[in-house]
Amino acid sequence: MKKFKIALVEDNTMFANVVRVFLQGELDVEVKIFSSAESFLDSEISSFDLILLDYYLNISDFFAPSGEVVLNEMKSKGLNVPVILFSDLINREKINQLIGAGVVHFIPKTECLFEELLIVVQEALISHKEHKGVFININLN
Question: Using CA atoms, how far apart are residues 36 and 26, in angstroms rounded to an integer?
Fold first, then answer.
């Protein structure tokens, strides 16, 4: 059976590697890390089953694209890959706006991130594959 492919767009390489190791240890997935919006947008986005996207990408560079720019670019290209957004973002209005723009779930970067991330990733993969007419079996217990 083919492994699910997840794109992880996160500029903090240490955090991205921890998330990758965690998900690959818990699920039968392949996680590819992109450290910038540009490198991700230059990839074959439609080849991924799920995208994990940090809202603040390269916060030290004021002109670097944000997760919102990535979402808008995906939408303009007609790409329909589920996106889970995670961030320190606290602004509820912005979160609701992004969910309305195609984000399937928002996970705050807190100490509970990994527990919630595992559940949400499993649910998103199941939903995405069912939408595409592919049957999969993942144990959610």
Answer: 25
Which residue has 């916060």 as its token pair?
A: 59
Q: Return d(Cα 119, Cα 115) in angstroms, integer.
A: 7
Non-local CB neighbours of 123 within 8 Å, separated by 6+ positions: 140
Task: Give the residue from 16, 65, 18, 13 showing the smallest Cα distance to 41.
Answer: 65
Task: Identify which of 48, 53, 18, 62 has the alpha carbon closest to the alpha carbon of residue 35.
Answer: 53
Is residue 106 within a helix (H) or strand (E), and if so which, with residue range? strand 103-108
CA 57 to chain centre: 13
Inter-CA distances, 42 with 8, 13, 59, 61, Å? 14, 19, 20, 19
pTM for this predicted structure: 0.82
Q: d(Cα 29, Cα 60) in Å, to the nearest integer?
A: 31
Over the stretch 33-60, which tens digit does the pLDDT of each residue have? 999 888 999 999 989 999 999 988 876 6
